[in-house]
Structures are given as structure tokens and as C-alpha cells.
# Entry
Amino acid sequence: MKTSINAWSVKADTGFADMFREISEAGFDGIELNLDAPGAVHGLSMNTTDAELDEIKALSEKYNLPIVSISSSMHGGMWGDHDPAVREHAKDVLRRQIYLAKKLGADGVLMVPGGMGEGRTLLDSWKNSIIAMKEMKEEVKGCGIKIGVENVWNGFFTSPFDMVHFLDELDCPEYAVYFDAGNMHAFSWSEYWTEILAGRIVKVHVKGYKRNKGSINQGGVWCDITDADIRWDKVIPSLKAGGFDGYLTAEVGKTDPDQSWPDYYKMVREQVQVLCDYAK
# Structure
């Protein structure tokens, strides 16, 4: 397995050129970029030009730092919305991610189905998400990009069986799992998810989380990846046994104001490498 970091983990006012240089110097094997609203200094947008994408791709090649996937902050419950126009916008976001992935050499994107709220139940959100994603099946088939649905803290995927059921209902090989190995740790065990999702996981986020009292459903705190009580020695071999041997992408934040950003990047890279070593 290889080390990667999400661009959200990079100092917010860092431009693309400095970001690629600094992340490369820290020793990472790859980087994940994000589709965001306009204004993010090192974020992609719906309006990023092809010329700008060519410049970003050139930086990736210059620093030997592949762009491994395209995440996004723009799904925001749109897939589960009752309004077909809102779901159509969700499709446009996904279309843009796929386009960006192709232009930048990535082979996968992250998307978040669901989104409950006033007047929209879990069942409503499930049905609406399935409808919208099925409407895109013929469009995404054969596109060469894996579309990973992620287990985020939105109450939609609270079990790996949910993800299996969801993907089986879609019945499309391009739809797969973007597995976040920390987002369920407060209420479940990551290594149990990897066993059930074996063969479906195409991308992985890693982060640190430590439970209160070491028990599920007692809350907890975010922490450094290697300070977590996630059983990485079981999670990583289970991922590999299930067929995953790609990038482990850190999605973390700097918390020590006295630590320099270069030292922070190197620390995160070393922590992700510890996880990679469990796959040997």
C-alpha cells in the first residue's frame, strides 16, 4: 500500500505549486484533490479551466506525486433531495468529478449519497439517492472511473450491510465503496466493515479516533492516526485480504500551533507509512 494525503489537510492558503512541492518533500506517494466551491486556493471548482488543469497535471508529474482521487465538499445531501432539480445538480457535481479525474489521471472519485432533514426521512433519502444514481448508470458505465460512496457522519450508512445493500440495488460496476476507516469507530469496528465490504473497496481514508473508556457508543476524540485505538493491525491486513492494495489517504487536521507545516506533513506521512507496513 502507498501513502497519500487529502488537500484539505494542507495549509489553506497554500497554492498548488507549493502544495505539490511540500507534500512531495514530505515523502508522500500521492495526493487527493477536492472539488469545492470557488475560492479555495488549492481546490478545484466547477469553473477550473482545462489550461489550469494542465498546469496541475504538470505539477503532479514534476513532483512525481500522482493525483489518486477527487473528493468533494459539494454533495451535501443533494442526492437524497425530493426535488429532481437538486438531484440533477448532484449529478452535475459527479460528472465534473469524473471529468476532473480523467484530466488529472485519477482513477476514482468520492461521493456522498443520502441526506436526511425536515420532511425527508432515511427511507426517502435512500429511495431518492437510488433513483438519481440509477439514472446515471448508462452514463457512467465504462467511464474508467470508480465512484466510491463514502461512509460519512450523516447517518446514512451506519452498517457495512447498508453499503452492500445500496450497491447491490444499483447493480453497476462503476459504483463501489470509498471506505473511511475512522468514521464508524465511535459506534463500530473498522475491521468488521472491511471483511463485509471485501472486493468493493476502491479508495480508503485514514484518520485517528480514540473512544472514551475504550468502548463503542461512549463518544471519543479525534487524534493522531497512530494514537488511535483503531486496530490498524487488523484493519490493514483485512483490507489487503479483501483485494485492496492502493493508497491510504490521510484526511486529518493540524492541531499543534507550534508545529511547523513541513514537520506536520512529515509526521502524517510517517503515521500513514506505519499503517502501510501492516500490509507487508
